[in-house]
Design a protein that fits this description.
It is an enzyme of class 2 (transferase). It catalyses: L-leucine + 2-oxoglutarate = 4-methyl-2-oxopentanoate + L-glutamate; L-valine + 2-oxoglutarate = 3-methyl-2-oxobutanoate + L-glutamate; L-isoleucine + 2-oxoglutarate = (S)-3-methyl-2-oxopentanoate + L-glutamate. The chain has 362 residues and is an alpha+beta fold. Helices cover 25% and strands 30% of the residues. The chain has two domains: 166 residues, Aminotransferase class 4, branched-chain amino acid transferase, N-terminal domain (D-amino Acid Aminotransferase, Chain A, domain 1); 166 residues, D-amino Acid Aminotransferase, Chain A, domain 2, CATH 3.20.10.10. The longest helix has 14 residues. It is globular.
Length: 362
């Protein structure tokens, strides 16, 4: 695979310091974007080429561009954090790069070399380092690498041209207002993905498939929706955009990867962080009825969701068509908070990075 260099063409008129600082004071999530983006093209017969860092700007696409019709599109999400000494480091970009390759394989797209993925992220963060929030708290710079099919035509086939991009957005808390438990609606009739499908690829279609159930959850007074497996409609899989963990005293369990779940980077990290803190952690299966019964008999003590954007979010109230129950009295659980703080400490550079997850930038 070719590994193109990235030519720097920075903006002549970046946002002023005052305007940027006003945004960083209350960034929200995914609402504001930095001054630049990285683009790399792929063409059949030529491979990867024309890597550039350029001013952030709209894309111009022909109405017949294939991504608009056949959804050959994948993306990633990772974060860069300000460290105590003022430097910047990103969290496990190599794992995101490898998952990006796996998603590309599933959608018949070219695989971007791991080193090129990481370099593209590094170049953007280094150029827009002033957009990385100050050290402390949960603030970070969220990176969104993505790739789309750019061939023009309506024939149904893998495209012969693609565009890879990285954009960045300063991020505050995904759920504003502090660490508050979210309410969950258990969808028993709609599924997110099926075995042999695209559930383990990070592609927009999976998220589009979750939006109707998400709207139904909102009608039930819930913030998130949890999905069951597509075969037996029995086993808990994940939320629309986050993985789930179940806490049984000193043991935590997350649904095993079946091919219809996304292999979350935060999910994987927490299996190790939990062991570091002395907990047993494992992948397994939890049924919807077991979730309800173990909550009622007290053996299931906490449940939380996790993902790059939200980090760790406790689950409070759970609703299904026939019942409703609550975890930890509607408050964040002890284990949930310990795991959350331990992971954030590593990312913020104040906890020991014994697994070598942080990637320092220059």
């Amino acid at each position: 695979m070719t590994t193109p260099t990235i030519e720097l063409k920075p903006s002549a008129s970046p946002l002023s310091d005052a305007e940027r600082e006003a945004i960083l004071a209350s960034p929200g999530f995914g609402r504001h974007f930095t001054d630049h983006m990285v683009t790399i093209k792929w063409t059949e017969g030529r491979g990867w080429h024309d890597g550039q860092l350029v001013p952030y700007a709209p894309l111009s696409l022909d109405p017949a561009t294939m991504v608009l019709h056949y959804a050959q599109e994948i993306f990633e999400g990772l974060k860069a954090y300000r460290q105590p000494d003022g430097s910047v480091a990103s969290f496990r970009p190599d794992m995101n790069a490898k998952r990006f390759q796996a998603s590309a394989r599933r959608l018949g797209m070219p695989e971007l070399p791991v080193e090129t993925f990481i370099e593209a992220c590094d170049v953007l963060v280094q150029q827009d380092a002033s957009w990385v929030p100050a050290h402390g708290g949960e603030e970070s710079l969220y990176l969104r690498p993505f790739m789309i099919a750019t061939e023009v035509g309506l024939g149904v086939k893998p495209a012969n041209e693609y565009l890879f991009l990285v954009i960045a957005s300063p991020a505050g808390a995904y759920f504003p207002g502090g660490v508050k438990p979210v309410s969950i609606w258990l969808s028993e009739d709609r599924v997110r993905a099926v075995p042999g499908g695209m559930g383990d690829a990070k592609t927009g279609g999976n998220y589009a498939a979750s939006l109707l159930a998400q709207a139904e959850a909102a009608e039930k007074g819930c913030a998130q929706v949890a999905y069951l497996d597509a075969v037996e409609h029995k086993w808990v899989e994940e939320l629309g955009g986050m993985n789930l963990y179940f806490v049984y005293g000193n043991k935590i369990i997350t649904p095993a990867l079946t091919g219809s779940l996304l292999a979350g980077v935060t999910r994987d990290s927490l299996l190790s962080v939990a062991r570091d803190l002395g907990y047993e952690s494992e992948e397994g299966r939890v049924s919807i009825d077991q979730w309800q019964a173990d909550t009622e008999n007290g053996t299931l003590t906490e449940v939380f969701a996790c993902g790059t954007a939200a980090v760790i979010t406790p689950v409070g109230t759970v609703k299904r068509s026939s019942a409703e129950w609550q975890h930890s009295g509607g408050e964040p659980g002890e284990v949930t908070l310990k795991l959350r703080e331990a992971l954030l400490d590593i990312q913020r550079g104040i906890g020991e990075d014994k697994h070598g997850w942080m990637h320092p930038l220059g």
